[in-house]
Amino acid sequence: MSIASVRTARGWAFLLASVLALSACSSAKQTQVSIVATPSPAATATATPTASPTAPPSPTPEDSASAEASPSAEVTPSAEVTPTAAPTDTPVPTAASTAGAAACTGTADHQAFFKQAAAALKFDVYCAPLPSAWWLQSTQYQEPNGGQLTIQYKNVKGGLISVGEGNFCAGAPACWTSVSDLGSASFGGLSGSMKLRTNAPSYAVFVDAGTTHGYQIIGQGMSQTDFAAFAAAMVKIPKS
């Protein structure tokens, strides 16, 4: 082999080695750029932290006062604070629980009538406070000859209560008659006598029988015990 051929071969070998070296450097450089230019999600989270929330400003005295003045749901009363009472049966009013004409069975007009009668008549006027099944059927009063008052009540079962006060028996002495005596009883706090009025049976309580200021109550369609309770519960109406 000639010297020129050797030189040529060495030149080509050197050139090939240079090309290979440059190629290797180029490949390593490209790989490094790729990693830096395309970071992983973890790198992104580390490299780009999220913004920290801004702490709320401290309340001013005016804000605190407004917050204290504003009512909360716990302060505002609800419907449960004011419970609605469950309906109950109409109670039987008595002289002890309900004063005056407001205790009388009947309408507001009837109660006003009893107040008027009490003011006009010389004797004490009484009315009956009965259970809700009863109603006032009729009533009237007169002032001449000492005055008198009569009342009649009925109930849904056919019961009847009649009341006479004052000189209601004028000219009719038979109104005080009875079949037998059943002992003592009360008429609205007045002492009287319990009578078996008729054998139907009907019962009666007489107070000052045969006088111009007597009281009488007669009941039928009920037991003697119930009648005695009704008679004792009669309510005195104030005169004022």
**How much helix, percentage-wise, in residues?**
25-40%
Distance between the termini: 160 Å
H and E string: HHHHEEEEEEEEHE
Order of strands in the sheet with most strands: 2-3-4-8-7-6-5
- Quickly name the level 1 CATH class of the largest domain: Alpha Beta
Find the CATH topology of the largest domain.
Protein Transport Mog1p, Chain A
Cα-atom radius of gyration: 55 Å
Which structural class do the helices and strands define?
A: alpha+beta
Low-confidence stretches: 17-97
Write down how many β-strands occur, each being a DSSP E stretch of 2 or more residues.
9
Taking the sheet with the most strands, its summary is: 7 strands, antiparallel
Q: What is the mean pLDDT?
A: 72
Entry summary:
It is built from 5 helices and 9 strands, in the order H-H-H-H-E-E-E-E-E-E-E-E-H-E. With 240 residues, the chain is an alpha+beta fold.
